[in-house]
Specification:
homodimer; about 230 residues; alpha+beta; four-stranded antiparallel sheet; 9 helices; about 45% helix; about 20% strand; elongated; DNA-binding
Chain lengths: ~230, ~230
DNA sequence: CGTGCGCTTGACTTTTTTCAATAAAGGTGG
DNA sequence: CCACCTTTATTGAAAAAAGTCAAGCGCACG
């Protein structure tokens, strides 16, 4: 793939919107492309940071592991998202693990190059500040969810979020295996399974096959998410 | 307080180290000073962001509240730390609450000014990128701790961290009430109290008065922190 | 067509929370 | 400096939530 093609790809990423053309040009010059197979590790916790990744398509996840092997998913990344920025600016090492969930094509921009371009084009730095700030909000929300709420509440929040992402559709798909959803919510497959079963019995939703969800009572689901009542 | 004095204060903050003199000058011009009394709210979740705070002295904490009033402390800020940066660069609103733990003197740099100076002095932007990246690491650790480990483990990690911050002293002080320590660890005062009592019975540590701690068996405490065994 | 992985369910254990009562500490004003 | 009052900490007992272990089912993929 040549530089022009890479530049065209960068141009598609909202993150780079509005940056001067010669900035993109320089970034394209140093950018590598890499495609990861499903389940392929992308980086490991503590690894020396190559640089920053742009997801072109596919899906990957960033996670931590406990000593006994339990997974906590920190975030799932999809098309057009940027990851690994934190390791570029402090610590030089990735603070967690990442692996592909499906075939995933990425661009990799090396550490040194990013920093150099930030000096030259402050707008790039501001863009990255925006990304990092958003990431921080994401983590604040995650901490809140994990520490203040019980599993059915977290699940309700998650399902409503998924529905919202699809224009508020009643019927949609968990796009990842349930075991992974559990790992996102900071719990185990068994606990998630029971929570879904209870919500089904309460008439809040219906499950179809292994990943299908139909929301039946948005009202009460929202109340559950807001902590107004509990699933007994 | 005049501009020169503010500039001198900014100069003391490691965060501003190495920035050009005229950058500090401009920042000093727009900086306000404010002192908060103990327990005084600094900002509330969702409030329009004034700008970024620099803690000159004192201590404050940033936290979330659950619907039923339980507190989760996200981070405690002390002298020379910067907070509120995330709200400057995305969202325009603070994502959590902050209040003073004791009398706390701060400098406040307005949003617009920070952004303007970032454009003019890319090093300021890089400094902020560094701060935000570090903050992200902090949250990654917090999420890991909350989701992957039980309370005694989290407590062990916290105590060893406190000890390390004081050159590895065996004897030191929780600098905040135990109830707040509980809120940092994502649990309740009762649970914390019991964890400390058990650790005392196991000979891992000793408590003195309301905030004093003496570590008696670093080895085993470390093992507990590493998840190698459990407190039965 | 079988094997394996993911999902579900049940029974049981452990951890944490909840509720309540008491004790200790800390701060304030006399 | 002491007495009082409020806040903070401890402890017990009971309940609830989540985790563990184990068995079984079903679907997808080779």
């Amino acid at each position: 793939m040549n530089i022009e093609q890479k530049k065209d790809l960068l141009n598609l990423v909202p993150f780079f919107r509005g940056l001067p053309d010669d900035c993109l040009e320089k970034l394209a010059e140093i950018t590598r492309e890499h495609t990861f197979a499903p389940k392929e590790p992308i980086f490991g916790e503590g690894a020396e940071a190559d640089g920053m990744f742009i997801v072109l398509n596919g899906k990957l996840y960033v996670y931590k592991l406990s000593p006994d092997g339990k997974e906590q998913i920190l975030k799932i990344f999809e098309s057009m998202e940027v990851l690994g920025e934190a390791a570029v600016f402090s610590g030089h090492r990735y603070p967690a693990n990442a692996a592909a969930l499906e075939e995933t094509r990425t661009l990799i921009i090396p550490r040194a190059g990013v920093i150099r371009q930030c000096r030259e084009f402050p707008d790039l730095a501001l863009s990255l500040l925006d990304v990092l700030s958003g990431r921080l909000r994401h983590f604040v929300h995650l901490v809140e969810s994990l520490s203040l709420q019980e599993v059915p509440t977290r699940l309700a929040v998650y399902l409503l979020y998924l529905s919202a992402r699809k224009d508020g559709a009643e019927q949609f798909d968990l796009e990842i295996p349930k075991g992974r959803v559990a790992a996102m919510l900071g719990t185990l497959p068994e606990t998630l399974s029971r929570a879904l079963a209870k919500m089904g019995k309460e008439g809040l939703l219906q499950t179809e096959g292994s990943r299908g969800i139909t929301l039946l009572d948005r009202e009460r689901l929202q109340g559950l998410a807001d902590g107004e009542w509990r699933l007994r």
